[in-house]
Amino acid sequence: MTGWGVNDTVDITHEFGHMLGNVDEYFTTNGVDYTRGGSTAGFRDASGGVMNNPSNNPNTNNYNLIARKAQDLIGGGASCSVQSI
Fold it and tell me: Count of domains in the chain?
């Protein structure tokens, strides 16, 4: 995590996503087929979110993970949600 920001400016958002707890969305990861049965590229797909293609924005599931973690940290029955703008 110390060299990519200097040597690789394209993947910064992707790597930051890992710092927030998101996993790679390449090929099949953790039992999830991100190629949709081979109908999309497994890596840097044009329609993939930031965890597949760093040129793109995060997907809703990436934001939802952060909201769930924030809710766990806040505790006490608080709720966090993702809102589209």
Answer: 1
On whether the pTM is more than 0.70, the answer is yes
Q: Tokens in use for 2?
A: 């110390």
Q: Which contiguous run of DSSP H or E holds residue 69?
A: helix 60-74
Q: Is the residue at 80 inside a domain?
A: no
Helix (H) or strand (E) holding 48: none
Q: What is the pLDDT of residues 2-51, one digit of tens each?
A: 666 677 778 888 988 998 999 999 999 999 999 989 898 889 999 899 99
Phi-psi region of 35 (alpha: psi -120 to 50; beta: other; left: phi over 0): alpha
What CA–CA distance (Å, rounded) separates 25 from 58? 11
* 1: pLDDT strictly greater than 80: no
Q: Would you say residue 49 lies in a domain? A: yes
The domain in which residue 48 lies consists of: 4-58
- Does 75 map to a domain? no
